[in-house]
Design brief:
globular, 8-stranded antiparallel β-sheet, 3 helices, alpha+beta, single chain, 36% helix
């Protein structure tokens, strides 16, 4: 794994752990990153956000996927109100977490000479949903474990 990929991974790990700790008092432990081989989500709810270089030379996407139990636990901690089903409050919170993690990671990437502007996140729900990243490049997946269950961050650049 080259230094650029290690640096990208570090930015998204740092952003994910920091945002979840700050927003939901939740500790997230990163697992071993891997190249994803298919487009199916390993969860029930996913926030997806695109980003692009202001000069149009490159673009990418980031997704944040939770199991239902993980999303409900994290969002309950985040908004100080127990959530028992995937509803508008949960989907809004997943979109906001996606936006914050992407924003913090993109801020860190500036130090690597990678400048990106973010789009508005979308949220997809349903077991077995598909995530289409904007690039034909490899999708890097970073698994995390929390006290509420697993989540996955995926990043793809072109």
């Amino acid at each position: 794994m080259n230094d650029t990929i290690k640096g990208i991974i570090a930015q998204f790990v740092d952003a994910t752990t920091s945002v979840l700790q700050t927003m939901a008092m939740t500790e997230a432990k990163a697992g071993t990153p891997f190249v994803k081989q298919d487009a199916s989500a390993k969860g029930d709810i996913t926030g997806v956000i695109g980003f692009s270089n202001p000069k149009g030379k490159s673009r990418g996407t980031m997704s944040l996927t939770f199991t239902a139990a993980t999303a409900l636990g994290i969002v309950s901690a985040m908004i100080y109100e127990e959530q028992t089903e995937i509803n508008d409050a949960v989907t809004d919170a997943v979109g906001e977490l996606t936006n914050m993690i992407s924003g913090q990671a993109r801020k860190g990437l500036v130090g690597m000479g990678m400048i990106f502007e973010g789009a508005i996140p979308s949220v997809i729900t349903g077991s077995g949903h598909i995530i289409r990243h904007v690039s034909t490049s490899a999708v890097l997946a970073i698994p995390f474990e929390t006290q509420y269950g697993p989540l996955m961050v995926e990043v793809c650049f072109s």
